[in-house]
Give the backbone structure.
Amino acid sequence: MNLIDLGWNDHLEQHFDKNKDDSLIPARIAVQQKDRYVIFCETGEFQAEVSGKFRYETSSKADFPTIGDWVAIAHTEDETSAVIHRILPRKSKFSRKAVMGGGETDEQVLSANIDMAFIVAGLDGEYNLRRLERYVAVTWDSDASPVIILNKSDLCEELDQVVSEVESTIIGVPVHPVSAVSNDGLDRIREYFGKGITISFLGSSGVGKSTLINSLLGHDRQKTGDVRDYDKKGRHTTTYRELIILPEGGVLIDTPGMREIEMWGDEDGLSKAFDDIEELASGCRFGDCKHENEPGCVIQEALSAGELDKGRYKNYLKMHREIERLEIRKIGKQAHTERLRGKKFASMVKEMKRLKDRYKR
Ligand code: GDP
Ligand code: ZN
């Protein structure tokens, strides 16, 4: 196993050098199960745990290593396992909200250092443009780059039409129709693979992620199955966390968490995914236009002229509200701690109220 195959690159090298500590070596988290890890490093695969100091000094769950993280480790004296001393800075991260004791939310990082997210949809009737938009927004938010894969092209009769619909709705994201069963279009996907690049697959259950991964790898890495292998909630029962080194170079991260990704984070990803709507809105007469029935509202004009799709606008509002709720909870949590320290509680309550009002639609 060499570091380059694991996704190591110049940027990481520089960073590792800066914090040089002769006794530590770089490693990548391949499996995480609560506070136990499996790491890959130049000398092979090891069980690992964070050091006592790391645990003591780290309060936020989000700062603990997760799959895909690069870490600095030391082998134990008998060289059978490893101790994680620190995390190297993350290039990207996919997170979701975790509900804590007391109903507060905390960030849970599902995977780190993903360069490219393949967002998969199935063209067998499950296909949903709104959901694709959400996955794209989540991906921009993570700092990875999105690529849309429309799988099961063998089951779609209006392929060209669907591809151009997706391309014209989700601007700036490459769209590739493929079939994991007939292997049509898979070479286009392989072109994205390469040394130093880490990819991951997102998409609802049943769209064909496992089948695609197997076809791309050329062997059955994961068992795929038909409906009887799904549990009562419709989830595939055979998935598990994993980091896979690709034969073409590069790394694939496939974890159940990434498959059930939810919203977390700020509005940057949303703005990028819906920048056409944000641009339209900037033309409204009033800066604080709620796009309801204010005079000079460009959004309402575009909706009634049919220039802005109603479904897409509704989806945009829905995502805004989700982010809103998270922001309000975050401020609420902060306000709670600040008040204990006797600080500006009132101004925070005001900010919460402002946020609530802003999206009251
Ligand atoms: P996952 O839940 O996203 O991992 O989906 P799976 O890989 O388990 O696939 C779900 C079902 O779709 C399985 O029955 C696959 O055989 C089927 N499937 C996957 N890809 C294709 C495809 O390109 N064409 C067709 N016709 N079926 C596919
Ligand atoms: Zn408006």
Summary: The chain has a mean pLDDT of 79. Residues 264 and 326 are 7 Å apart (CA to CA). The pocket of zinc ion (ligand 2) is lined by residues 281, 284, 289, 291, 294, 297-299 (CB under 6 Å). The two ends are 55 Å apart (CA to CA).
